Each structure stands twice: as structure tokens, then as C-alpha cells.
Amino acid sequence: MLKKLAFTGLGALTALVGFLAPAAYAQNEQFIPMLVYRTGPYAPSGIPVANGFRDYYTLVNKRDGGINGVKISFEECETQYNTKLGVECYEKLKNKGPTGAALFNPYSTGITYQLIPKAPVDKIPILSMGYGMTAAADGTVFPYVFNFPMTYWGQASAFVRYVAKQEGGFENLRGRKIALIYHNSAYGKEPIPTLEVLSQKYGYNLKLLAVDHPGQEQGATWLQIRQYRPDWIFMWGWGVMNQVAVKEAASIRYPMDHFIGVWWSGSEADVVPAGKGAIGYKAGDFHGTGAGFPVHKDIIKYVYNGNAQEAKNNNIGEVLYNRGVVNAMFSVEAIRTAMQKYGNKPLTGEQVRWGLEHLRVTDSHLKALGMADFTQPIEVTCSRHNGVGGRVYIQQWDGNGWKKASDWLEPIEEVVWEQVKQASKNYAFENRITPRVCSGQS
Asked: What CATH number should be reported for the domain holding residue 248?
């Protein structure tokens, strides 16, 4: 039954609402909305993410009896990765459940940008985990937006750090040619400011190559790549754009181990279509790959009644499935944290915001959840909504799966945080926001 969730028709979505969430929500349940894109050009990326969310929320209900005894209710709303549809879904779902939406995971930078001004009005937090507006890392200006464990600017700087290490030091970046192939959207443009600042600092040459939605037409882009002959390529892509780019790189015999994708350009769907040509391609990541962690065993046991094949049909262990699981875990633990202050009952978005801002996920905590070494510990503070100590590593495709290809990489913090503070200051000025004071926190 569950494998039928990988559908492509909107009619199927309507038919499955009864499975995904009850039509009416009990007064003792915590409602968490799910913005998904199981249809449209980005469905191959959206389906495993949605399945990861759904399965983790279901696991918490079946294995744990809910969050401290409070069952989770959830409902999917199809956005097709379309900003207008995403905002409509937000308006449709924000007041559901006994206390309204606990938080929103937009899973689109474009949708996130539109929800940022709504969040403080509706008092519902936005968790854009590793995406969205990087400036929102400054909690003094964006009290309702969170983007831990790491931002796009942090990841872009970590990529530069990685390349510097491969080249023998930052001093050896001078004169190197780096091309950024990016989705021509708010999402794709996010790393540009950081890469430009770092190019001035370290002396590498940066070429920017935009790819229009949905990303199938890239002939002109790769013609420029052949002419420019970059030493390294970064890719900020999504959906079909990724697999087309990997195929194009393979077709011109670009050295794949010098081609690095953002963590949204490093899933199985991005490399499998290119066959052997994708071997060596790299991408960022901040959590484990594969289905060998205890949490996966629990999902198979409690969600799929021991049927490992059904779980596999629903993408278990794939990169983007695991990302949905990690995101759902952070959402649940933020609610659990808030319950320490407000009690074991359904909470409002404003109360969950407090939980997000006081979230501490330790190694021992992860182990208890069946997620030891699955992702890193995180600590969120009033001022640091990107979390403290967030890092990324490089994974590499070997033809059969993703393998860890680097140590954990720190962002170039002195550059990134200065950019964040300046961007948030500009946003505050333009929107007449008075930043709050976070006593005793950086």
C-alpha cells in the first residue's frame, strides 16, 4: 500500500489524504503541516523527502506513542515546488489542529522567502533546514526563522576550504578558475555573495552560469564550460537540472572529482541516470547515507511492519529520504524541548518557536533516537538560528552509493558571519525592524 505514495497525479493525492492524516484533528494531538511536491518537474527529489518526513512522524507515533504522549497529526499539501501554491498551502494549513500549525518546513527557498514576513505575524516558526534566506541565521532580526545546522553561505565557504585543501593551501587558490552553475532562482543565487567575497580574498576567478527552470536545457552552459575550462565546478541545482548537468559533465569528460554539488545536488536521482559517467562526482552533505542506522531498522519494524522491500520502495536510506528524517527529527525535538517549559500537551507555534531557540541535540540524545553518527549534535541560541558548530562534509558517488570523501568541514566563519550580520542589518532597516537583544549570547 505504502509504495503507492510515489504517485504523480493530483487526484491520487486527494485519494490518499485519509491515509496521510485524519480529516479531523483530536484535541490532544500536535498538528504539523507538510508542504510537499510529489508532482511536477521536481517530484523525483520531492518524493523521497516527503516519505522521510511521513515515516519519521509515523515512527514517533507508533514506537514512542507520540511526543511525550502527544500524538502527531500531519497533512500533506502539494506545492509542485511552486511558490504561489506553497503560500496557498501555508494559508490552508496554518490554523489546523487544536493549537494551529506547530511549525512549517517549506522545502523551497522561494516559498521560504514569501513566508518569512508572515511568520512573526502568525507567530508560527519557519524551519528551513539548510536552505532559505541565509541572513535569517541572525535571530535578533528573524526571531521566527531557523536555518540550522548550516546555511548556504556556510556551505559555499566550506567548499572553498575543501578546494583549498585539495590545491595545497589557500595561497594556491590564486589564479584558479571556479565556475558556479546555479538554478536561476532565489535558491540558486544564494551562494553568489559569499563566493564573490571569497574570490576577492583568495584570488580565484569566478564564473557564474545560470540555468533556467526546470533545468533541462543546458547546452549553452556546457559550451561555456568547455571554453572556460574551469579547474573546479560548483553546482547549486535541484531536480532534473542536477541529472542533466552530471550527464553533460560526463559527456565532455570533465574530471568528475572536481565537480561538487550543493547538498541538494547530491542524491541518487542526480547520478544514477548518468550511469558510469557519474562515478567520482561529489556533493555536500550533513547526515549519513544508506539505511544501516538503528532508526531505519525501527522504521522498517514499526512503519512497514517488518517489510523491508516496502520500505525500499519508499526510498528508505536514500540521501533525500534521510534528509526528511533528519528534518522531522529536529522538528519533533524542538516540540519536545518546548514541552519542558509549557507541558506535555499540543503547543502553539509561538511555544514551539521557544523550543527551536533552545534546542540542544547531543550525541547521547542522537543515540537514544537511533541516530548515533547519523547527523551532528546541534545547539541553537537566541542570536544563532543557524546553530552553533554546524559543519558539512563531501560525499562521493562510486557507482553504487555515496561514500564519505572528506572530514567535516568548518565554514569560513569570520567571512560568513560578517556577511550575515550585514545582510540582516540591511533587512531590518528596509523593513523597519528593531533587532532584539539576546543577553549573554553571541
From this structure: 3.40.50.2300
